[in-house]
Design goal:
By secondary structure, the protein is mostly beta strands. It contains no helices and 15 strands.
Length: 209
C-alpha cells in the first residue's frame, strides 16, 4: 500500500464528517463536535495515502467531563464552649478539622493557609481567596472522607483563613471557599475578689471583677 499522506479523524466509523490532519508527522489538536457532558465518546482515526486509499480505522474511547464538583460549604470544627463572633469561629487549637459539604464526585482536596482573615484588614465584607497563593503553594491530597485536617503549626494567635477547593478525577475544580477562624490560645486573667467590710453581719458578700 501507499505511504501515509495524512490522517482522518471522525466521531463515527463512517467518517462522515471527517477532519484531516496536515500530514502524518506533526501533532494535531482535535475538538469534539459532540460536547454533551458526562458521556462516553468514540474517536476513529485512519491513515490516508496520496492516492486516497485509507486504512482500517482505529477507535479510541474517551469520557467527556468538564463540570467540576460543587463545594457547598466548609466549616471549622469547634470545641465545646467556643464562640462565633461576627461570623468568625474562635478556637484555642492550631490543628483544625474542616468539614466539607459537596455535590458531585470529588477526588482531591486542596487548601492554603493564610495568616489573616482578610486581604485588607479594614474591609468588613466576607473573606475571599482572591489573594490566595499560586497553585504550587497549595497542599493537595486525595479526598477520602467529608473533612480535611489542617494545621497552622507554630503560627501565632489571631485571625486566619483556610482557602479550600475540591476537584474531580479529570481536574475540574469547584469554586474556592474562604473559611475564617480566630486562634486564641491565651487563657483569660483570673478574677479579682474584693471582700467589703460588713460589721455585724455573719457572712461575707464578695464582689467579682
Amino acid at each position: 500500500g501507499g505511504t501515509c499522506a495524512h490522517f482522518e479523524i471522525s466521531e463515527n466509523r463512517y467518517f462522515a464528517p471527517a477532519e484531516a490532519t496536515d500530514d502524518c508527522d506533526s501533532n494535531h489538536a482535535y475538538t469534539l463536535k459532540d460536547r454533551t457532558n458526562n458521556q462516553m465518546k468514540s474517536l476513529f482515526v485512519r491513515v490516508v495515502d496520496s492516492a486516497g486509499n485509507f486504512s482500517e480505522p482505529v477507535e479510541q474511547q474517551i469520557y467527556l467531563d468538564y463540570t467540576g464538583p460543587e463545594l457547598r460549604s466548609a466549616t471549622i470544627e469547634r470545641e465545646n464552649g467556643a464562640n462565633v463572633v461576627a461570623r468568625v469561629p474562635f478556637t484555642h487549637k492550631r490543628d483544625l478539622r474542616v468539614y466539607l459539604e459537596y455535590a458531585g464526585e470529588p477526588a482531591f482536596v486542596s487548601y492554603a493557609l493564610i495568616e489573616k482573615i482578610r486581604a485588607d484588614d479594614d474591609r468588613r465584607d466576607a473573606p475571599s481567596c482572591d489573594d490566595a497563593p499560586q497553585a504550587g503553594l497549595w497542599t493537595k491530597h486525595a479526598l477520602t472522607q467529608a473533612y480535611v485536617d489542617v494545621s497552622f503549626g507554630s503560627a501565632g494567635d489571631g485571625g486566619k483563613r483556610v482557602c479550600i477547593f475540591i476537584e474531580d478525577e479529570v481536574g475540574n475544580p469547584s469554586a474556592t471557599l474562604a473559611v475564617p477562624v480566630f486562634i486564641d490560645s491565651a487563657a483569660p486573667p483570673a478574677p479579682i475578689l474584693e471582700t467589703p467590710s460588713l460589721p455585724g453581719v455573719n457572712g461575707t458578700c464578695e464582689s467579682v471583677q
